[in-house]
Amino acid sequence: MASEEKGPKMKNEVIIKGHRQNNICNIRLYFKRYITARQLIASRFRGLLMLNKTRMLVIAVSMMFSLSAPAFVELHSHAFMNEGMGAIFRGDFNHKLCAHSWRCMLSSKINAETLAKSGVRIFVAALYAHPALVLRPGLSWRESVKESLRRQIRQAYDYVAQHPEWILAKNARQAQRAYAQGKKIFLLSLEGAHGMFESPQDFVEFIDEAGIAIVTPIHLINNSCGGAAYMRGLRKSIFTLKNFYFEWKNGARMNPMGLTPEGKDLILRLMARGVWIDLTHMSDRSIDDALPLLLAYGQPLLFTHTALRKYYKDERGISPRHLDWIRQNRGYVGLVPSEEMLVNTKVDNEFCPANCRPCRGGVEALAQHYYEIGTQIGFTRVAFGSDFSGGISHLRPARCTTQTSLDRVGLISIDQMADLQLSLEKRLQKTLSQDGMANEFLAQWELAQNRSGE
Ligand SMILES: [Zn+2]
């Protein structure tokens, strides 16, 4: 069956074959092509000379890892951000990566090639469109956002159609069957629901037909659904004006706004269609307003990309109370491997080699969060929500050797997932069950959809 037939029916279909060429990053690529043949041959020759025992060993080890077929769960990355952030973002899913450093925020850190290499078997592609950056002449901001999302959805369907090892799963049972057959699972999520669901047709188009499985109703700013979690940092404060209004509670800055009646109504309608509600970015008050609704539907609490508030110190980090709720009931947490989210983490000596003390940031801080969350709610309920291409930096180069690429360059892109996992396991001195995480995620997704069925 042709791939297009499987995809959603697009309203006002304006999909362009091939994608908008990207500015600075692609200019660099074109420039590279003009390097003379002589330079290329010389550099290849030098490379061959360097093929000494160490390199052979590295190649052998990496081959061993690729044969062991890891099954990572990635809960939140922006594969198609060039469509969501327009001209300020460099790179796209079908071209080479643009990010060259862990510090890069607005360059691509994920593309088709690196996703294939990553070992990720459950991938949640977060769809996002910034209303001002995707504004199109003659269209309202709401229509412009929808148009951007249609393009991102089409790219997802195109990718899956061209790569039969993937299935774009619209429901958990379909995903569980495919996973058991060795397939990779591609899910769609939507970050920020403001202005998206104006009419019943929007639910049909984006949920039923396109198959958006997870919705994060509130994003960086208070919207018609409710209050957003307070985030630290000057950049975020300027970007998200809501940050000027907060109250102090238990040492953290909190947004006093909860869910609006419109937000509650939207959550109910989404759950009725089988959507799993992501509580990331919600203020505590919004989460508490959402809880009775989720409980009535039997939905586990989902936080796709977060870190411990205990260290992060602002509302954007997950609270001890909500973690405890997950421990007693059920839920799933994606941890963000980013210095921005791991700020202020006090690393126990257990995770910090003696010659590196005191440890600050990096994989040691990540291990601290992972250990504390895993111990509290169970290690199969924590995966990564890396937010690659999501406008944030990632892990700086490791100060203490992990014998992975993280030592040299830090965490830049999704194809380093195996290295990230390996270095984390080294610091934790514990093997993490990838299959356990994947199966737990799929089981919880099934629970979240129980009321609506297939
Ligand atoms: Zn986010």
| Gross geometry | globular
Structural class: alpha/beta
Instruction: Give the proportion of residues in helices.
Output: 40-55%
Q: What is the terminal-to-terminal distance?
A: 22 Å
What is the count of structural domains?
1
- Total helices: the number is 19
Q: Please state the CA-atom Rg, rounded to the nearest Å.
A: 22 Å
Q: Give the ligands present.
A: zinc ion
SSE topology sketch:
Blueprint: H1 3-6, H2 23-33, H3 37-49, H4 53-67, E1 72-77, H5 81-85, H6 112-117, E2 120-127, H7 141-162, E3 166-168, H8 172-180, E4 184-191, H9 200-209, E5 212-216, H10 234-239, E6 247-249, E7 252-254, H11 261-272, E8 276-277, H12 284-297, E9 301-306, H13 309-312, H14 320-328, E10 331-335, H15 339-342, H16 362-377, E11 382-384, H17 405-409, H18 417-428, H19 434-449
Parallel strand pairs: 1-2, 2-4, 3-4, 4-5, 5-8, 9-10, 10-11
Antiparallel strand pairs: 6-7
The structure holds zinc ion (ZN).
